[in-house]
Specification:
With 288 residues, the chain is α/β, with parallel strands linked by helices. The chain folds into 3 domains: 111 residues, Nucleotide-binding domain of ferredoxin-NADP reductase (FNR) module (Rossmann fold); 86 residues, ATP-grasp fold, B domain (D-amino Acid Aminotransferase, Chain A, domain 1); 61 residues, ATP-grasp fold, A domain (Dna Ligase, domain 1). The protein is built from 9 helices and 13 strands. Strand 4, helix 5 and strand 5 form a beta-alpha-beta unit. The chain is globular, with a radius of gyration of 20 Å.
Protein backbone atom coordinates (compact mmCIF):
# COMPACT_ATOMS: atom_id res chain seq x y z
CA UNK A 1 0.00 0.00 0.00
CA UNK A 2 1.41 3.36 -1.02
CA UNK A 3 2.09 5.70 1.89
CA UNK A 4 0.04 8.92 1.88
CA UNK A 5 1.98 12.14 1.30
CA UNK A 6 2.20 14.20 4.49
CA UNK A 7 0.64 17.65 4.40
CA UNK A 8 1.44 20.98 6.04
CA UNK A 9 -0.59 24.15 6.59
CA UNK A 10 1.58 27.28 6.68
CA UNK A 11 0.14 30.53 8.03
CA UNK A 12 1.83 33.90 7.85
CA UNK A 13 2.52 37.25 6.27
CA UNK A 14 4.68 35.82 3.48
CA UNK A 15 4.58 32.02 3.29
CA UNK A 16 6.14 31.61 -0.18
CA UNK A 17 9.71 30.69 0.93
CA UNK A 18 8.40 28.16 3.45
CA UNK A 19 5.89 26.70 1.00
CA UNK A 20 8.63 26.38 -1.63
CA UNK A 21 10.94 24.50 0.75
CA UNK A 22 8.20 22.21 2.05
CA UNK A 23 7.04 21.26 -1.43
CA UNK A 24 10.61 20.46 -2.44
CA UNK A 25 10.87 18.30 0.70
CA UNK A 26 7.92 16.24 -0.55
CA UNK A 27 4.99 17.68 1.40
CA UNK A 28 1.56 18.72 0.18
CA UNK A 29 1.36 22.38 1.18
CA UNK A 30 -1.65 24.52 2.10
CA UNK A 31 -1.26 28.24 2.82
CA UNK A 32 -3.01 31.12 4.53
CA UNK A 33 -1.04 34.11 3.28
CA UNK A 34 -1.30 37.90 3.31
CA UNK A 35 0.07 38.94 -0.09
CA UNK A 36 -0.29 35.91 -2.34
CA UNK A 37 2.87 36.34 -4.42
CA UNK A 38 2.51 34.82 -7.90
CA UNK A 39 5.26 32.27 -7.22
CA UNK A 40 3.40 30.97 -4.17
CA UNK A 41 0.66 29.25 -6.18
CA UNK A 42 2.78 26.56 -7.94
CA UNK A 43 3.90 25.36 -4.50
CA UNK A 44 0.51 24.87 -2.79
CA UNK A 45 -2.48 22.59 -3.22
CA UNK A 46 -4.84 25.20 -1.77
CA UNK A 47 -4.54 28.73 -0.41
CA UNK A 48 -6.46 31.61 1.10
CA UNK A 49 -4.97 35.07 0.41
CA UNK A 50 -6.05 37.91 2.70
CA UNK A 51 -5.83 40.86 0.33
CA UNK A 52 -7.61 38.82 -2.36
CA UNK A 53 -10.38 37.45 -0.15
CA UNK A 54 -11.00 40.80 1.56
CA UNK A 55 -10.35 42.91 -1.57
CA UNK A 56 -8.12 45.25 0.40
CA UNK A 57 -4.47 46.27 0.88
CA UNK A 58 -1.88 46.40 3.66
CA UNK A 59 -2.48 50.05 4.53
CA UNK A 60 -6.17 49.40 5.17
CA UNK A 61 -5.86 46.37 7.48
CA UNK A 62 -2.33 46.62 8.87
CA UNK A 63 -3.68 46.89 12.42
CA UNK A 64 -6.18 44.04 12.16
CA UNK A 65 -4.69 41.49 9.77
CA UNK A 66 -3.80 39.03 12.56
CA UNK A 67 -7.52 38.55 13.26
CA UNK A 68 -8.06 37.89 9.54
CA UNK A 69 -5.22 35.34 9.49
CA UNK A 70 -7.01 33.56 12.35
CA UNK A 71 -10.37 33.56 10.56
CA UNK A 72 -8.93 32.23 7.30
CA UNK A 73 -6.93 29.59 9.16
CA UNK A 74 -10.18 28.32 10.66
CA UNK A 75 -11.70 28.25 7.16
CA UNK A 76 -8.77 26.30 5.76
CA UNK A 77 -8.91 23.74 8.58
CA UNK A 78 -12.64 23.26 8.05
CA UNK A 79 -12.12 22.80 4.31
CA UNK A 80 -9.12 20.47 4.74
CA UNK A 81 -9.53 18.70 8.12
CA UNK A 82 -6.95 15.97 7.39
CA UNK A 83 -3.86 18.21 7.16
CA UNK A 84 -1.04 16.70 9.23
CA UNK A 85 1.04 19.64 10.45
CA UNK A 86 0.70 23.36 11.23
CA UNK A 87 3.53 25.89 10.90
CA UNK A 88 2.91 29.55 11.77
CA UNK A 89 5.42 31.90 10.17
CA UNK A 90 5.95 35.65 10.46
CA UNK A 91 2.98 37.95 10.98
CA UNK A 92 1.63 36.45 14.19
CA UNK A 93 4.75 37.00 16.30
CA UNK A 94 2.95 38.96 19.00
CA UNK A 95 -0.62 37.85 18.24
CA UNK A 96 -0.86 35.64 21.31
CA UNK A 97 -4.65 35.59 21.43
CA UNK A 98 -4.89 34.55 17.79
CA UNK A 99 -2.31 31.79 18.25
CA UNK A 100 -4.23 30.45 21.26
CA UNK A 101 -7.48 30.64 19.29
CA UNK A 102 -6.03 28.53 16.46
CA UNK A 103 -4.88 25.85 18.92
CA UNK A 104 -8.25 25.95 20.65
CA UNK A 105 -10.03 25.50 17.31
CA UNK A 106 -7.92 22.41 16.63
CA UNK A 107 -8.75 20.99 20.06
CA UNK A 108 -12.49 21.76 19.98
CA UNK A 109 -12.99 20.46 16.43
CA UNK A 110 -10.72 17.47 17.14
CA UNK A 111 -8.62 18.05 14.02
CA UNK A 112 -5.71 15.64 13.56
CA UNK A 113 -3.27 18.45 12.69
CA UNK A 114 -0.17 18.75 14.92
CA UNK A 115 1.30 22.16 15.71
CA UNK A 116 5.08 22.36 15.17
CA UNK A 117 5.35 25.86 16.64
CA UNK A 118 6.80 27.36 19.79
CA UNK A 119 4.20 27.57 22.54
CA UNK A 120 2.78 30.99 23.39
CA UNK A 121 4.66 31.38 26.70
CA UNK A 122 7.98 30.67 24.96
CA UNK A 123 7.17 33.28 22.30
CA UNK A 124 6.33 35.85 24.98
CA UNK A 125 9.75 35.35 26.57
CA UNK A 126 11.55 35.43 23.23
CA UNK A 127 9.85 38.72 22.31
CA UNK A 128 10.40 40.38 25.72
CA UNK A 129 13.38 42.74 25.42
CA UNK A 130 13.90 43.08 29.18
CA UNK A 131 13.82 39.31 29.71
CA UNK A 132 16.27 38.69 26.86
CA UNK A 133 18.70 41.38 28.03
CA UNK A 134 18.70 40.05 31.59
CA UNK A 135 19.31 36.55 30.24
CA UNK A 136 22.21 37.76 28.10
CA UNK A 137 23.75 39.81 30.92
CA UNK A 138 23.58 36.78 33.21
CA UNK A 139 25.88 35.04 30.70
CA UNK A 140 28.21 38.08 30.49
CA UNK A 141 27.16 39.16 27.00
CA UNK A 142 26.99 42.86 26.12
CA UNK A 143 23.62 44.52 25.40
CA UNK A 144 22.71 48.14 24.58
CA UNK A 145 21.21 50.31 27.31
CA UNK A 146 17.43 49.90 27.00
CA UNK A 147 14.75 51.50 29.16
CA UNK A 148 11.00 51.81 28.99
CA UNK A 149 9.90 55.17 27.59
CA UNK A 150 7.71 55.64 30.65
CA UNK A 151 10.88 55.66 32.80
CA UNK A 152 12.75 58.18 30.65
CA UNK A 153 12.38 60.92 33.27
CA UNK A 154 14.60 58.94 35.64
CA UNK A 155 17.42 58.99 33.08
CA UNK A 156 17.25 62.57 31.86
CA UNK A 157 20.78 63.95 31.72
CA UNK A 158 22.22 60.44 31.98
CA UNK A 159 21.35 59.16 28.53
CA UNK A 160 23.33 60.13 25.45
CA UNK A 161 22.13 61.14 22.00
CA UNK A 162 21.68 59.95 19.35
CA UNK A 163 19.30 57.32 20.66
CA UNK A 164 16.59 55.04 19.34
CA UNK A 165 12.88 55.20 20.10
CA UNK A 166 11.10 52.05 19.05
CA UNK A 167 8.15 49.87 19.86
CA UNK A 168 9.11 47.09 22.25
CA UNK A 169 7.44 44.61 19.88
CA UNK A 170 7.89 45.27 16.20
CA UNK A 171 9.39 43.71 13.10
CA UNK A 172 10.92 44.63 9.76
CA UNK A 173 12.27 47.97 10.96
CA UNK A 174 8.84 49.51 11.44
CA UNK A 175 8.30 51.95 14.33
CA UNK A 176 12.05 52.57 14.82
CA UNK A 177 13.31 56.17 15.01
CA UNK A 178 16.79 57.64 15.45
CA UNK A 179 16.78 60.94 17.37
CA UNK A 180 19.59 63.43 18.02
CA UNK A 181 18.08 65.75 20.67
CA UNK A 182 15.38 65.90 23.33
CA UNK A 183 13.57 68.40 21.10
CA UNK A 184 13.40 65.87 18.27
CA UNK A 185 12.18 63.22 20.71
CA UNK A 186 9.48 65.52 22.09
CA UNK A 187 8.27 66.50 18.61
CA UNK A 188 8.11 62.89 17.46
CA UNK A 189 6.16 61.77 20.53
CA UNK A 190 3.63 64.58 20.01
CA UNK A 191 3.15 63.45 16.41
CA UNK A 192 2.75 59.82 17.50
CA UNK A 193 0.23 60.82 20.16
CA UNK A 194 -2.07 62.06 17.41
CA UNK A 195 -2.36 58.48 16.11
CA UNK A 196 -2.28 56.75 19.48
CA UNK A 197 0.91 56.57 21.57
CA UNK A 198 0.91 54.20 24.55
CA UNK A 199 4.03 54.96 26.60
CA UNK A 200 4.23 51.40 27.92
CA UNK A 201 4.59 50.02 24.37
CA UNK A 202 7.77 51.96 23.57
CA UNK A 203 11.41 51.78 24.66
CA UNK A 204 14.43 54.07 24.49
CA UNK A 205 17.58 52.30 23.36
CA UNK A 206 21.24 53.23 23.03
CA UNK A 207 22.13 53.79 19.39
CA UNK A 208 24.83 51.39 18.20
CA UNK A 209 26.52 52.25 14.91
CA UNK A 210 27.77 49.13 13.19
CA UNK A 211 27.03 46.18 10.93
CA UNK A 212 23.49 44.77 11.09
CA UNK A 213 23.49 40.97 11.03
CA UNK A 214 21.15 38.12 11.86
CA UNK A 215 21.85 34.55 12.90
CA UNK A 216 19.52 31.63 12.21
CA UNK A 217 19.27 28.27 13.96
CA UNK A 218 17.15 25.15 13.75
CA UNK A 219 16.23 23.45 17.02
CA UNK A 220 13.82 21.03 18.70
CA UNK A 221 13.63 22.65 22.14
CA UNK A 222 16.60 20.71 23.51
CA UNK A 223 19.14 20.62 20.68
CA UNK A 224 20.25 23.38 18.36
CA UNK A 225 22.22 23.65 15.12
CA UNK A 226 23.53 26.83 13.53
CA UNK A 227 22.33 27.47 9.94
CA UNK A 228 23.69 30.80 8.75
CA UNK A 229 24.79 34.34 9.58
CA UNK A 230 23.39 37.00 7.24
CA UNK A 231 24.51 40.56 6.75
CA UNK A 232 21.26 42.55 6.79
CA UNK A 233 20.44 45.29 4.30
CA UNK A 234 18.76 48.02 6.33
CA UNK A 235 17.23 51.23 4.97
CA UNK A 236 19.14 51.16 1.68
CA UNK A 237 18.00 54.11 -0.50
CA UNK A 238 19.12 52.21 -3.62
CA UNK A 239 16.37 49.69 -2.81
CA UNK A 240 13.74 52.41 -2.34
CA UNK A 241 13.54 51.86 1.42
CA UNK A 242 10.72 54.06 2.78
CA UNK A 243 12.30 54.31 6.26
CA UNK A 244 15.80 54.52 7.71
CA UNK A 245 15.68 51.17 9.50
CA UNK A 246 13.43 49.23 7.12
CA UNK A 247 14.57 45.67 6.45
CA UNK A 248 15.43 45.25 2.74
CA UNK A 249 17.05 41.81 2.56
CA UNK A 250 20.15 39.75 3.41
CA UNK A 251 23.61 39.09 2.04
CA UNK A 252 25.13 35.62 2.48
CA UNK A 253 27.88 35.00 3.40
CA UNK A 254 28.11 37.89 5.82
CA UNK A 255 31.87 38.28 5.36
CA UNK A 256 32.62 38.80 9.06
CA UNK A 257 35.77 38.06 11.01
CA UNK A 258 35.87 34.50 12.32
CA UNK A 259 36.01 35.66 15.95
CA UNK A 260 32.87 37.76 15.46
CA UNK A 261 31.02 34.86 13.82
CA UNK A 262 31.95 32.57 16.71
CA UNK A 263 30.61 35.07 19.26
CA UNK A 264 27.35 35.58 17.34
CA UNK A 265 26.82 31.83 17.06
CA UNK A 266 27.57 31.38 20.78
CA UNK A 267 25.04 34.06 21.79
CA UNK A 268 22.39 32.71 19.41
CA UNK A 269 22.76 29.11 20.58
CA UNK A 270 22.63 30.25 24.21
CA UNK A 271 19.36 32.12 23.62
CA UNK A 272 17.83 29.32 21.55
CA UNK A 273 18.54 26.63 24.16
CA UNK A 274 17.71 28.72 27.24
CA UNK A 275 14.38 29.73 25.69
CA UNK A 276 13.66 26.18 24.52
CA UNK A 277 12.88 27.32 20.97
CA UNK A 278 11.63 24.94 18.29
CA UNK A 279 11.88 25.17 14.52
CA UNK A 280 13.82 27.81 12.59
CA UNK A 281 14.45 30.98 14.60
CA UNK A 282 16.64 34.03 14.16
CA UNK A 283 18.16 36.78 16.27
CA UNK A 284 19.30 40.21 15.06
CA UNK A 285 22.52 41.94 16.11
CA UNK A 286 24.51 45.09 15.51
CA UNK A 287 28.22 44.36 15.35
CA UNK A 288 30.11 47.39 16.65
Amino acid sequence: MEERTKSVLVVGFNTRPLAFSLKNAGYDVYAVDFFGDLDLYPNVKDSLILIKELETDYGTIKGTYSKSLLDFTKQMLKKNPDIDFLIIGSGLDDAHAERKAILNEIKVKNYKIKSLNNDVETIKKARNIEYLHNLLKSHNFTVPLTISYINLGNYKGKIQFPLILKKSKSAGGLNVYKLSTYEELSTLVKNLESVGFNQTDWVIQEYIKGIAVSCTTISNGKECEFITINRQIIGDPLLNSPKEFMYCGNIVPAGLLQRDEKLIIKITKTLTLKLGLKGINGFDYVLK
